[in-house]
Amino acid sequence: MRQVQRSSLISQVTAQLRDEITSQRWPVGARIPTEPELCEMTGTGRNTVREAVQALVHAGMVERRQGSGTFVLTCSDLGGTLGKYFSDARHRDVTELRETLEVTAAALAAERRNDDDVRVMLSALEDRNVAWSNATPLADAVLIDARLHRAIVAASHNAIYLEFYDSLLPVIHDAMRHHAVEHDDDYVAEHTALVHAVIDGDADRASQAARSLFHELSEPLARATELPARAAKSTARTALSTE
After folding, report:
1. Which of 36, 57, 187, 192 is most exposed by smallest CB count within 10 Å?
2. In whole angstroms, what is the distance from residue 57 CA to residue 69 CA?
3. pLDDT in the model for residue 171
4. How far apart are CA 87 and CA 174, in angstroms?
5. Distance from C-alpha of 196 to C-alpha of 140, rounded to nearest angstrom
6. What does the buried/exposed string (b/e) look like for 142-151 if buried means 16 or more CB atoms within 10 Å of the residue's CB?
């Protein structure tokens, strides 16, 4: 009988942990079990578990937070790869990409949502609006907000849309945090209108509600981008006029 290679054991444990994430038994934003707990769950030693978790860190699926534990960043294998490409993307670019995806997803969700989707969306909407109306920590409010948008995309029943959306979650969270720090709006009315349009099965109204929401989100970002550009042009003109 051949001995089991340690590298093979690490791969097996990594695959088990990845499955917990991709199946969303450990959802985005959740803290994964501690090293001792993972050792007990997998029947392996600390070194094996540590290397398996590190493999997921390198893949961009989880991140270690000093003193807090290890948290799920994305439930998609694709997320780590795309996250590296998009890590330096401007927040305006991320918002524009989300609009392209979510406007269509909202229309499809209005046509395809089922009773389970409706329950999930209504629950997520309530959680989202409560989070932004109260003094919920920003990091938690962002995760709750993204959960609602993900529920709408999931209700489209387009597996590729959902996979791509999940892969973007780390940069979506970052863009949401940036926007929330800069602006005080809670967008409760806009999110409520979007969800109810989807639930009512009105595809046109749902896509318009999504488009209106992203227009509201994009306006401050556009102004923030235009101001430095105008300042640069003004400086250039001044420099030319003094030559």
Report:
1. 36
2. 12
3. 81
4. 9
5. 24
6. bbbbbbbbbb
Distances 243 to 231, 232, 233, 235 between C-alpha atoms, Å = 19, 17, 16, 13
Give the gyration radius of the chain's Cα atoms: 21
Question: 63: helix, coil or strand?
Answer: strand
Q: 177: which 2 tokens?
A: 């945090």
Spatial contact of 52 and 13, defined as CB atoms under 8 Å apart: yes
Could you tell me if 155 and 112 are in contact, meaning their C-beta atoms sit under 8 angstroms apart?
A: yes
Structure tokens at 87: 């890590």
Domains and CATH numbers, the chain: 9-75 (1.10.10.10), 79-218 (1.20.120.530)
For residue 115, give the H/E element and its range: helix 115-133
Asked if 176 and 168 count as a contact pair (C-beta separation under 8 A), the reply is no
pLDDT tens-place string over residues 91-134: 788 889 899 999 999 999 999 999 999 999 999 999 999 999 88
Q: pTM value?
A: 0.67
pLDDT for res 172: 85
* Location of structure tokens 């499955």: 19
User: How far apart are alpha carbons 57 and 45 in whole angstroms?
Assistant: 19
Task: For residues 80 and 111, give the distance between their C-alpha atoms in angstroms, rounded to a whole number.
Answer: 31
